[in-house]
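Design a sequence for this backbone.
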């Protein structure tokens, strides 16, 4: 496979997933799970369980200094790293999952692991593994043209983050740099389940993003159940709902992952 063979296909697969959810009258469900959590043997089955309900799946590349992650995801990353999950092993997980599903597979990574491997090599490995898109929470998109150019050359969609504190000018810069979807976070801070009130500023943020892009806008940070998913899908009219800490906590406590996903998915419906 050459780096340019399926450039449109991967980004189109991401956009098509949002379109299907929209046609079904709901926001897309985007579960997050840390690669290699709780260990390398059990992660594939957990990913498959989520893929049964997911419109897109976000796989977190475990990193030793995840400044944007709350305690639940931080501990999951530490456990995954201790179990031997590296950058290359994360991409190998994607490579093993890719033949089993048509669901878009996204890798969330801080920028340091990309630099550690080398941007060109990282993008090549991600492309060959079957990654559809990258979520880069700590990269200001206007400060590294090389990353954006390499990702595009290798057919990878790009997603950057906006927050309630983002200025209108900043929202415009970030949204225009995205090629997969726009990720709006409910608060400035770290991930994790919160009181539903943390989502109150999301409708204005989603509306602001839509002034500058036609891409889907997904919301994360603070969604943990059907009620909080409904705040995102209905009150904010978001195109996607990202859920991470709640799923990791469910795995940690031995809870039914499928039941939780079904509950949150029910909250993604647009009808009140």
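Sequence:
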């Amino acid at each position: 496979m050459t780096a340019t063979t399926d450039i449109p296909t991967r980004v189109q697969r991401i956009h098509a997933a949002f379109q299907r959810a929209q046609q079904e009258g709901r926001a897309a469900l985007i579960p997050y799970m840390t690669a290699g959590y709780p260990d390398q043997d059990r992660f594939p089955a957990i990913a498959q369980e989520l893929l049964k309900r997911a419109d897109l799946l976000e796989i977190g590349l475990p990193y030793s200094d995840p400044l944007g992650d709350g305690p639940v995801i931080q501990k999951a990353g530490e456990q995954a790293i201790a179990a031997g999950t590296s950058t290359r092993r994360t991409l190998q997980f994607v490579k093993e999952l890719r033949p089993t599903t048509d669901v878009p597979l996204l890798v969330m990574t801080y920028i340091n692991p990309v630099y550690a491997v080398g941007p060109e090599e990282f993008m090549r490995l991600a492309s060959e593994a079957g990654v559809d898109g990258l979520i880069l929470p700590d990269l200001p998109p206007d400060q590294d043209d090389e990353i954006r150019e390499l990702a595009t050359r290798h057919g990878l969609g790009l997603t950057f983050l906006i927050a309630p504190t983002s200025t209108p000018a900043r929202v415009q810069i970030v949204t225009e740099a995205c090629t997969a979807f726009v990720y709006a976070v409910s608060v400035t801070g770290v991930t994790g389940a919160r009181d539903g009130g943390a989502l109150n500023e999301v409708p204005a943020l989603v509306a602001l993003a839509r002034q500058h892009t036609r891409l889907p806008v997904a919301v994360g940070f603070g969604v943990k159940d059907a009620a909080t998913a409904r705040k995102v899908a209905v009150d904010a009219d978001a195109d996607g709902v990202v859920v991470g800490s709640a799923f990791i906590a469910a795995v940690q406590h031995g809870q039914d992952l499928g039941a939780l996903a079904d509950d949150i998915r029910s909250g993604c419906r647009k009808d009140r």
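The first strand starts at residue 28 and ends at 34.
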